[in-house]
Specification:
Elements lengths: L12 H15 L7 E2 L2 H8 L3 H13 L3 E4 L3 E4 L3 H8 L10 E2 L13 H11 L12 H14 L12 E4 L2 H12 L6 E4 L4 H9 L4 E4 L1 E2 L2 E2 L1 H11 L3 E4 L13 H14 L2 E5 L19 E6 L11 E4 L2 H7 L12 H13 L1 H24 L8 E5 L6 H7 L2 E2 L1 E2 L12 E5 L6 H21 L1
Parallel strand pairs: 4-15, 6-7, 6-10, 10-11, 11-12
Antiparallel strand pairs: 1-3, 2-3, 5-13, 8-9, 12-13, 14-17, 16-17
Length: 447
């Protein structure tokens, strides 16, 4: 019988049990389909009131970690690892905890760009016309703006080969839906984003993880997996990969492109973080076989929900011939503001500010925790042998994401991901990382 050790950090016992369930799922101790002990039996074993375990199971169910069926018991849900990344939040969150578990861009509390843009639209009496559906003209305007924006990624893509969507996640989903048959193998990084895992699960596409190193996926393993699975599609994040922060250098991009050409692979490139780094996209060396998917969420403003797909015309036609599954979901107001910002320099200015924030926070993490690699909005923190880093993060007042949330398959390396840009201020991030660094040093001394 699974029997957790409950933390004694002052929080209600039912929440301590929920946290223990979530931690066990994230570490792989509990796997999808595993049956949890009956509530009364667990209460007796832990010395709790049965109402406490009942409340904990109810809360864990609300967070989509577990599910129950009458006569069958309570089981870990198949979506629990990814769901826990977004749902491990108490209804009354601990004011002392710094949540670095979810990748969020830095938000400037003094930013008035949105207010300025909306005020200008109101002054020109254009708001009424932005309450309907996207028009052909507004979509052409947006595609032109994105085409110009992509030159910053060393890409020359005509507007006719740009399809707009309501965020990169919708773009990846639409691409997989258009290019793959149910049950068809799809290649991804061995550690990939929860969104890609969720898309594979929803579309019933088995994902096969490709081995990685500090420069991204290994060409030889991509070739091996392509031959072994007969996969036709790979979803990759070559620049500032989530969760590891790895970026492909020129040699790696060329090697991956060679494998894709040799094996006839279509590449869906998730370039959501690309503009925050210095490496060009994979599409720049493999334009004929790459569909680049991105948005303004991590670089300009997450609330605009303006995403886009760009690639060969033949590929775009297969994904969404009438653009009904993608562009139709856009908010005309967000589309208008996003398009204007891309063309009037606002987006470029905001991107430069975000890059500076990433660099500042990365250098801070490098100083305190010894971060390696290129500056990234998220820090991949390998766990030292014999050190319970997850516990140290909790003691330091930090919520982190465990490696099991990103691992494809059951094997997950001992590591945590910290979203450096999720902290509301550099000062708060510095204080918590200093606390974590001190706890880590003390733990190593005790070994």
């Amino acid at each position: 019988m699974w029997l957790p050790t409950l933390s004694n950090d002052g929080q209600p016992r039912y929440l301590a049990l929920v946290e223990a369930i979530a931690t066990a799922i994230a570490s792989g101790e509990l796997r999808p389909g595993d049956r949890l002990p009956p509530q009364r039996r667990l209460a007796w074993a832990l010395g709790l009131n049965p109402s406490t375990t009942m409340q904990a199971y109810r809360e864990a169910g609300r967070r989509h970690l577990i599910g129950g069926e009458v006569g069958r018991g309570t089981y870990v849900l198949a979506s629990s690892r990814e769901a826990s990344l977004f749902r491990l939040k108490s209804p009354e969150p601990d004011a002392e905890a710094l949540d670095l578990s979810t990748n969020l861009p830095v938000l400037d509390p003094d930013d008035d760009d949105l207010q300025r843009s909306v005020t200008a639209l109101c002054a020109r009496h254009e708001m009424a016309g932005l309450q309907g559906y996207p028009t052909a003209r507004s979509l052409r305007h947006g595609a032109l703006a994105v085409s110009e924006w992509l030159r910053g990624r060393a890409l020359e893509v005509p507007p006719s080969q740009v399809v707009l969507c309501a965020g990169a996640q919708q773009g990846v989903f639409a691409a997989l839906l258009g290019l793959c048959e149910p049950g068809e193998a799809v290649l991804v990084e061995g550690l990939t984003s929860p969104g890609i895992k969720a898309a594979g699960r929803q579309l019933r596409l088995p994902l096969h993880g490709v081995a990685m190193d500090e420069h991204g996926i290994l060409p030889q393993d991509l070739d091996r997996q392509a031959r072994a699975t007969s996969a036709r599609v790979a979803v990759l994040t070559p620049c500032l990969q989530n969760p590891t922060g790895a970026s492909m250098n020129a040699l790696r991009r060329e090697a991956i492109a060679a494998v894709a050409r040799a094996r006839g692979l279509w590449i869906i490139e998730d370039d959501i973080y690309g503009a925050l780094g210095d490496e060009p996209s994979l599409a720049s060396v493999l334009p004929e076989r790459t569909l680049l998917v991105s948005s303004l969420s991590k670089t300009v403003a997450p609330g605009l929900r303006l995403g886009f797909m760009a690639g060969p015309a033949a590929l775009m036609a297969r994904i969404d011939p009438e653009a009904q599954a993608t562009s139709w979901a856009l908010s005309p107001l967000c589309l208008r503001i996003g398009s204007d910002w891309l063309q009037d320099g606002t987006a470029a200015r905001r991107l430069a500010w975000q890059r500076e924030q990433v660099l500042q926070r990365w250098r801070l993490a490098q100083k305190l925790l010894g971060s390696r690699g290129v500056p990234s909005p998220h820090l991949w923190l390998p766990l030292a042998s014999g050190v319970d880093m997850a516990r140290l993060c909790r003691l330091a007042g930090i919520e982190a994401a465990g490696s099991a949330m990103f691992a494809v398959g059951h094997e997950a390396p001992p590591a945590l991901r910290l979203s450096l840009t999720a902290a509301p201020s550099p000062a708060l991030l510095k204080a918590r990382l200093e606390r974590l660094s001190g706890l880590l040093a003390a733990a190593r001394c005790d070994e």
